[in-house]
Design goal:
This protein has 386 residues and is α+β, with helices and mostly antiparallel strands.
Length: 386
């Protein structure tokens, strides 16, 4: 007896396809969540490596690294205005403790980091300094921009930044990775150094190493150096740009015991979080555009502050004289708020001075966030408040 082979009917085929589509729809979010968890775990590990490197630096030097080794000996000898002089960001101080001695040895710390002799070190990427969640173009600042002919490539960048402190309206330079000089008494045209700051030792962190931030993360610029684009505060790339705050908060204008909703520090933070949706960013191509060159007053190169909440747009303070460098590039000065931000859903990772890493939610109480940024202002912070 001859049997005919029966194939699938159209309805059966559509049912199978629908079942497969449902299964994919159910599995895809789980796969994406697993990948994000892996990236976040790698970011935590990077910060732990930085924390360990900082502890080893302390063992060798009895203090935490300065935000910037500035100015270099050669630059200081020229007598050029201080706004034009560059130093080396804190990354290079701890490179030997990150097993990056070859990069460290390639640096000539006597010369300016913006010299052609530094290009080998300046263009070498260090994977520990990059968050795996970073999706931006890492080629932001070409070596040709410093007038070096015969060279190609781009300056290396980093997603990790040092704690400059809490709100400047309460106390500037209250963090743990701070400069060696107080630039408030200087200007971009000053030629002499004044106001040397004390180095930060572990003994200086009287609020407790387990209650004080050391490093966190930030997203780098949306646009390459020299380009222009329009970014709005509610847009996709708002965390990569610099906006003008709507409230001007004077430094040292708030007493630590008067942290009410009407104080200038709170008003500045609220203003940065409520920038009109149609107000474009002032600068879109300068946040973290390169890693080697630093300056005490140009915070968006290697620093973050505990002022505005995590994952809010970086914000200038209009009264800050250091918002724009002498070459016309925009930064955030010591009175502003370079925010900790990331692509991790809901918050940012922060490495504390004891080497532990905590995930701080966007919804953290602002006063608690401020307290985590200061090293010795006597605030009491419980571990269940963040």
């Amino acid at each position: 007896m001859k049997h005919e082979r029966r194939g699938f009917t159209l309805i059966e085929l559509l049912v199978v396809i629908a079942i497969i589509a449902v299964l994919i729809a159910l599995l895809l979010p789980a796969v994406q969540a697993a990948r994000e968890a892996a990236r976040r775990a790698q970011c935590v590990n990077n910060l732990k490596q930085l924390g360990l490197a900082a502890q080893n630096y302390v063992s060798s030097n009895s203090s935490l690294p300065p935000q910037t080794s500035w100015p270099t000996m050669a630059a200081n000898a020229t007598g050029n205005p201080l706004g034009y002089q560059w130093g080396f960001n804190w990354y290079y101080a701890i490179l030997p403790f990150l097993e990056q001695t070859p990069v460290y040895n390639a640096v000539n710390f006597y010369l300016s980091p913006m010299m052609p002799q530094q290009i080998t070190a300046a263009t070498m990427k260090v994977s520990t300094l990059l968050c795996p969640d970073e999706a931006a173009n890492l080629q932001l600042f070409p070596v040709s921009a410093i007038g070096s002919t015969g060279y190609s490539g781009y300056f290396a960048v980093s997603n990790y930044v040092g704690n400059y402190g809490g709100p400047a309206a309460i106390m500037p330079y209250s963090g743990t990775i701070i400069p060696e000089y107080n630039v408030e008494g200087m200007s971009t045209t000053s030629t002499s150094l004044t106001g040397q700051l004390q180095i930060v030792r572990l003994a200086s962190i009287t609020d407790g190493t387990s209650n004080t931030g050391l490093f966190s993360e930030r997203l780098i610029a949306y646009s390459p150096y020299g380009s222009t684009s329009t970014v709005y505060p509610n847009g996709t790339n708002a965390l990569r740009a610099i906006f003008q705050g709507t409230y001007a908060a004077a430094p040292n204008s708030v007493m630590i015991g008067t942290l009410t909703t009407s104080n200038p520090a709170m008003l500045f933070a609220q203003g940065c979080q409520s920038i009109p949706a149609t107000t474009p960013a002032l600068w879109t191509a300068s946040v973290g555009m390169e890693m080697i060159a630093g300056h005490p007053a140009y915070l968006t190169l290697s620093s973050y502050s505990h002022w505005t909440a995590p994952n809010t747009p970086p914000c200038q303070n209009s009264i800050d004289p250091w918002n724009v460098g002498p070459t016309g590039v925009g930064y955030i000065g010591p009175y502003g708020a370079p925010t900790a931000n990331s692509l991790h859903p809901g918050g940012v990772n922060v490495c504390f001075c004891d080497g532990s890493v905590h995930f701080i939610k966007n919804s953290v109480n602002l006063v608690t966030w401020w307290a985590l940024g200061s090293r010795g202002m006597g605030e009491v912070v419980s571990s269940d408040s963040y």
